[in-house]
Amino acid sequence: MTATREVPPTGVEAQPLVEEPAAPERRLSGFLRWTTSTDHKDVGLSYMITAFVFFLAAGCLALLMRAELADPGQEMVGPGTFNELFTMHGSIMLLVFLSPFAFGIANYCVPLMIGARDMAFPRINLLSYWIYLGGGLSMVFGFVTADGAADFGWFAYTPLSDSVRSPGLGAELWLVGVALLGISGILSALNIVVTVFTMRTRGMTMFRMPILVWNFVVVSVMVLLVFPVLTAAAAMLWTDRNLGSVVYDATAGGQPIIWQHLFWFFGHPEVYILVLPYFGVVTEVFAVFSRRPVYGYKGLVFATCSIGALSLGVWAHHMYATGAVLLPFFGVMTMLIAVPTGVKMFNWLGTMWLGRVRFSTAMTFAIGFLAVFVIGGVTGVILASPALDFHLTDSYFVVAHFHYVLSGGAVFGVFAAIYYWWPKWFGKKLHEGWGHVHFWLNFIGFNLTFFVQFILGLEGMPRRVADYTEASGFRPLNVVSSIGAAVLGVSVLPFLWNAYRTWRRGEPAGDDPWDGQTLEWATSSPPPIGNFPEGLPPVRSERPLWDLKYPDRKATTGADPAARKATR
């Protein structure tokens, strides 16, 4: 493709554009559409639907673990099977669900938000999806092998993951899956970066892009920096297991701790790779359902960039107990990353302040995200202290913290995105009543499940164990946690019913049901191939659609005293 530059209107900065081929006259349908279409919207939906199916599978594994832990004694699964369950649960949630679902949102929404007709590399986009699907299936297929799935934990610490201590095809399939998922993520990230930097519509300067697009740019740069490290680490472990290399073999001069350094250099930025996209989601939701512009737009952008940069320098706080890292440096760096995260909290609260808040299902999930992520963040500061971490490491306190950050933060963001963009994806609105039932069951079940695990951790219950004794006193809180997990599992049923009934007989939502601010709401729902056949509104701010609908900005955003008084 050849880059071209068009002459912008007076006062609007020119942006490089990519010359694109003419869109086909009709969309493929049925099987061919979902297997061969390179339209970014079809690829995005494929990512999200596939990732959600993996999410349901990972949830079933979690329910089995909680059922086993509800009472002392081996009642449902043995220690070996339990190890397979928590290994695959963590691997699927982190590598096969949250990150690919975010890439699905990016595939669908980023071109629409920047006024592009497609991704920069449509065929590579489709290829990355199929590589992702192959990687996810490789991991899961370990369950059908003779030796079972991988059982060394989703972190695969060496030497626990070598061929002596973890033999079998399931472990090999896990490593192959990690490599494939890493390649898929690199291709997707490259595509997003090139799309954003070369295909923005005229007038869409960097500081007029929606916050969600900014977040995906930062996340994509992080992916390009750390996913190759994980892929290389997995490849070296595979060669240790199969070709006789000794990278991690201490008996032959290797260094097992190298795996921890390589894995966590990927693993800690991965936490922000997983949550930053959903930071962007809730930012868009807060602004639209508060009927206000994003508060502190540039502050949010710089906070996002700061999080991305700082996350690359704090990986060793996962390794305090090894005694092989410089504790003061990584302790200070870990606490420092809380600062830009706190800035975002104030930006979100500022966006809602004096706004005309509408408590739609998307908005309630966004507020739920804010509540649970604050708990996860505060407990993260506790674990950043080496003195405290020595006592809490490998306890259920860490399990609770981790789930409040990722399962609570990101999964609440997933559902906020689904309820917000469902009308754009399918042209119909999900039922708000069923949506609120889903939210409250999810919120109550989540907190019942994981808040008591903070107490269990403080009382000394170790993580990654399939059993405990009656004398330990852990049973009452484990029963509460398992009941919460059951409620959390049941909470998905109203959503599935809501999706089914809306698909079958839902009413058309219209092109702009939420009174949106950004360009994806300027076209039909769902959008046609080419996205904007009737052209785009001029882009003069980060909310171009509002500029078109409401030229008198003060009268519609609550920026003047009279409007503020009216919103109270």
Rg from alpha-carbon coordinates? 24 Å
| The CATH homologous superfamily | Cytochrome c oxidase-like, subunit I domain
The number of domains is 1
Query: Percent of residues in helical segments?
Result: 55-70%
Tally of separate helices: 19
Shape: globular
Order of helices and strands: EEHHHHHHHHHHHHHHHHHHH
The CATH class turns out to be: Mainly Alpha
Low-confidence stretches: 1-25, 555-568
Strand order of the largest sheet: 1-2
* Relative strand content: under 5%
Distance between the termini: 53 Å
E-strand count: 2
Overall pLDDT metric: 90
CATH architectural grouping: Up-down Bundle
Describe the main β-sheet briefly.
Answer: 2 strands, antiparallel
Give me the secondary-structure category. Answer: mainly alpha
CATH T-level topology = Cytochrome C Oxidase, Chain A
Brief descriptors of the model:
single chain; about 575 residues; mainly alpha; Cytochrome C Oxidase, Chain A; 19 helices; globular; disordered N terminus
Short description:
The chain has 568 residues and is mainly alpha-helical. The chain has 19 helices and two strands. It has helices at 30-36, 40-69, 79-113, 122-140, 169-198, 211-242, 257-290, 297-310, 327-336, 338-352, 361-384, 386-392, 396-426, 432-458, 475-490, 492-505, 544-549, 553-557, 561-567, and strands at residues 3-4, 17-18.
Structure notes:
The chain has a single domain, classed as Up-down Bundle (Cytochrome C Oxidase, Chain A), CATH 1.20.210.10. The protein is built from 19 helices and 2 strands. With 568 residues, the chain is an all-alpha fold. Residues 1-25 and 555-568 have low confidence and may be disordered.
